[in-house]
Design brief:
The chain is mostly helical. It contains 5 helices and 2 strands.
Length: 147
């Protein structure tokens, strides 16, 4: 598994440990008790996470199955020039975002209009996505060199 996926699994493992500590030390009454009228009970918090998982998992599976896989016959110079051009445009956009409420601007996912991220999260997703595929490209180039 690549480092980014290991990082996510480590986060989920940490959440599982927190959950197990929580449910291991709570009775049914405390589980359902709201700390105040406008705050969720522990039961509601975990039920919310379950609903989120149930909503995301089908979308994640569908997105993975329908992921865009480009052809590998594109010339180095052409793809490189386009990458550099798009990187410059993306950086210029990010610089123009300074001073704007990037945590409140919502962007729909390119895979499903039902999924929306704030601009900050979208930019982080794009950056991580680039690193993931550049790592993959580096590994492919190394393997091709050794062949």
């Amino acid at each position: 598994m690549n480092a980014q996926l290991r990082e996510v699994v480590a986060e989920l493992d940490g959440a599982t440990r927190r959950f197990e500590r929580l449910v291991g030390g709570i009775d049914e009454a405390r589980w359902r008790m709201r700390p105040s009228a406008d705050a969720w009970a522990a039961a509601e918090c975990v039920a919310h996470l379950n609903l989120t998982h149930e909503a995301y998992l089908p979308r994640l599976l569908a997105a993975l199955e329908a992921a865009f896989v480009p052809g590998g016959d594109q010339p180095l110079a052409e793809v490189s020039a386009r990458f550099r051009e798009l990187q410059k445009a993306l950086v210029a956009f990010i610089e123009a975002c300074d001073g704007h409420p990037i945590d409140r601007v919502e962007i729909p996912s390119p895979f499903s209009s039902a999924v929306r991220f704030n601009l900050w999260a979208t930019l982080l997703i794009i950056a991580r996505h680039q690193h993931r595929h550049l790592q993959q490209a580096e590994e492919a180039a190394l393997a091709a060199q050794c062949a």
